[in-house]
Amino acid sequence: MSDGELVRQTLAGRSQAYEELVRRWAGRITAMCHAKVGRAPEAEDLAQEALLRGFRSLSSLAEPEKFGSWLCGIAVHACLDWLKSKERTQIPFSVLSRDHDAEGFLGGRSDADCCALDREEELSELMAEVEALPEDYREVVMLYYYEDVTYRDLAQLLGVSAATINARLTKARAMLRDRLSKKVGR
Fold first, then answer.
1. pTM of the prediction?
2. Which of 48, 56, 38 has its CA nearest to residue 78?
3. What is the pLDDT of residues 63-101, one digit of tens each?
4. How far, in Å, CA of 1 to CA of 22, rounded?
5. Domains along the sequence of the chain with CATH
6. What sign does the CA torsion over 138, 141, 146, 151 have?
7. CA distance 38 to 40
């Protein structure tokens, strides 16, 4: 069933149809929000906000077949609203300090625990570098890898050519390789 048909069913009072739209689009919207704001928890909240805004204003959608791009626009506006908001707070630097050294932190842990910690640290560093990419690159990386979206779908979603998607992914990968290799070489 097409997005347009699901929109029409939702407007006719069948709320389960919107649930299907949410299942189809939530991942992409979350990835797009993550690419825009660079923070996973906030991205999840903003994606939920965009889905709710979409539901509330569904009757304003002139072309039901274009639900996906319309919803992406709502998500972008939700992210921009959040970025402009003065309600955001910064975490004090003092929260980041630890009262114990690395040995005390790792003391009593097995090799498997240490490997899991190393893997978690590597993933955290990778995500930090992805989040630090310029928005155009971050957006395609998040959508491509988190949502397994094809180049063609990404191009349509973002309003650019598939060649542009390829170029952005290639550049983003090179930037990530360069940044991560510099960290390893420290």
1. 0.55
2. 48
3. 999 999 899 999 988 988 888 775 554 444 444 444 434
4. 14
5. 3-84 (1.10.1740.10), 105-180 (1.10.10.10)
6. positive
7. 7
